[in-house]
Amino acid sequence: MIVLGTGAAAIVGVVLLALIAGGAAMLYLGLRGKTAAQVDREANVHLNALVAASPAVPTIVRGDGRVEMPQRMADWLGLATPPRSLAELTGEGSGLSAEDVAALTADVTAAHRSGRGFVRAVRPLGSTRAITLRGARAPGEMGSAGAVLLWAFDATDTEAEIARLSGETQRLGSAYDALTGLIEAAPMPMWYRAPDLRLTMVNSAYVEAVEGRSAADVVARGLELVEGSGRGGPLAGAAAAREAGRPHEQVLPATIDGERRSLQIYDVPLPTGGVAGFAIDIEELEQARSGAKRFAEAQRAMLDRLSAGVAQFGGDHGLVFCNQPFRRMFAMRAEWLADRPEFDRVLERMREADRLPEARDFPSWKAERRAWFTQTGPIQGGGAIEEHWHLRGGTHLRVVAQPLPDGGLLLIFEDRTEQVQLASARDTLLRVRTATFDNLFEALGVFAADGRLQLWNNRFRALWGLEEEFLASHPRIDAFAEAAAAKLATPGRAALFPELVHSATVERQQRGGRVAFADGRHFEFAGVPLPDGNALFTMLDITASRRAEQTLRERAEVLEAADRVKTAFVANMSYELRTPLTSISGFAEMLHGGYAGKLTKKADGYVEAILESVERLGLLVDDVLDLTRDAVEDGGVAREDVDLAAIVRAGAESIVPTAKRRKLDFAIEVARSTGRVTGDARRLREVVEHLLRHAAAATPDGGRILLHADGNATSARIVVSDDGPGMDADAVAHAFDRFAETKPMGDRALGLGLPLAKQFVEAHGGTIELVSEPGQGTLITVEVPRR
């Protein structure tokens, strides 16, 4: 057992006391710290609750790049766990986009370095949430230096509201712009007055109407559209509208573009206290009203001149107007009509005049006509009721009743008696035409524009041997052609029928042809376009005429062969006659020349007569040879440039000896316009000679012959006239016939000169004309073209 001394005990006591005092102090401090910790814990819970309930979520980005983010912020970004760095803010389909992360990193770095705050709006991937990030350097109390505090705000609703408000603002702005543009573009003057009724806004139409320079100029000068002041002025209407609180309307005169116009002024009070106004030019409306009134008067005057009777009743069923034909038609006096009788009384007066159809129950019949005033059901003619009244004596009236918008009724009475009679006559004619159509010798069929058979007669059906059922089906032309092909000698010819109908219906051209049937008959067919667009297909049996034509053709061939034999015989005889004529001419010339001794005067006269006869016979032989030459008949004449004037003079020389011997007055007139032509010089000279010989033969001794030639730009003319005995109509008609029986002209015959002249002129493309009357001489005109 250890015994301590008094001093040691004291030391131990002191130590124990110190320990107890220290324990008590430590207990006190512990209790105080516990109390402070409890307060801090409660404050921390409070702060955490405030942060959790705050619309902003904080995030700290440390200087070393570490990120301290609450789970709430990670949920906003669509991340499963909070990221540890900015690079982890992006993921597959969640977080932020790489562009947003890069931009946010650049903002945080700038905030680290310069302490400058920033604001950035981001959208998480795959989410419609909009987040606004506000960043700034964190306070020093929050930890390490250089940290950046990010506050995240959910701006989804805000941005939607902003977008809505922006859209509404844009819509209202567009509406305002449209309204302003509409007011500016309005063709009528429009304006706005402030509460004190001063002009504050006008449109371009207003400026133009008051002849101002601009809208500002008009407002500054206070130019009013309508002159005057006081009760009838423009401000009076605006003041009345403002005081009454409803639109005010008035008609005032104004001068626009130097013309006096009537304006309908409208003043409309606005909630702002101002008054808006606009003006409508009703000058044309006033004129239209006046014109309508004049038109109504003119219309009534015109109705008075119509052949149809017209009566108009008002909404009270009283007679408002009736024209002269109505009065005559129903035998009504103007004095009685002047009292505006009612509809029922007018019908009764018509009945008294025996101008109504028979009706067993007249009151019921009248009540039915009275219902015309209120007719509302479906009626004919878009609102008109039509009836036909058959009166005694065969009179037929067409009655048209037209209800009027004001409750009245317009009645029109048209006398159709003549039309009904004409319609009856037309029906009779149609029946006659149908009977005629069915009994015609021709086979007729009518095809419509679509190619279908519409009408046909009995001969048409019998000709093709088609069944009535087939025709009644209205076959198309191609089906008809196919059915008719078997009747033809050449079935392929049936293809012409569709072409024929198409040409008549579409091209509106008439075409035709001939076709042979298998039984030996021949028909002539044609497609004729009809006025209604259809085509008439006709077929005529020409079998008999075909046979007659063949007989005539064979006879013509025989006659042509005989003509050729005659022509050859005449040519041969002409050549044979030339040989003895030459001998006779030679011997006669020898006798006349004294080779056989001197002849007596009488014998010498005989020889001269022989020479003259030989010369004349030689000319006749030459004429016959010319008529029988095929080359001339075929137009075989030379084509060369010849001087027609010289040819005419040369041809005239052939008749000079005869003219001198017979003491004829032979006049020659060749104008400079005769000129040159293209042709055969010899034949043209013979034309002149033949005409002169004919004139000399027809002219008595001492008579007169005229040869005249002239021309124009296209042709030349030769005229030969004489004052001989002339020719009758029969001689003129046969003057140019070959080998025609000639009639004596005094002691001379016509000869072959004129036929030859005609033949030569026509070979040159010209014409020859003979004019003559008995006792008036003869005139022959020849026209020869230049080329």
Structure in words:
Residues 572-787 form the Histidine kinase domain. Its EC number is 2.7.13.3. One of its GO terms (molecular function) is phosphorelay sensor kinase activity. It is an enzyme of class 2 (transferase). By secondary structure, this protein is of the alpha+beta class. It has six domains: 50-154, 2-Layer Sandwich (Beta-Lactamase); 186-281, PAS domain (Beta-Lactamase, 2-Layer Sandwich); 307-421, Beta-Lactamase (2-Layer Sandwich), CATH 3.30.450.20; 440-541, 2-Layer Sandwich (Beta-Lactamase), CATH 3.30.450; 556-628, Helix Hairpins (Orthogonal Bundle), CATH 1.10.287; 634-785, Heat Shock Protein 90. Helices cover 46% and strands 21% of the residues. It has 25 helices and 27 strands. A five-stranded antiparallel beta sheet has the order 2-1-5-4-3. Helix 18 (543-592) runs antiparallel to helix 19 (601-627) and helix 21 crosses helix 23 (681-698). Mean pLDDT is 80; it is low at 377-382, 630-635 and 743-750.
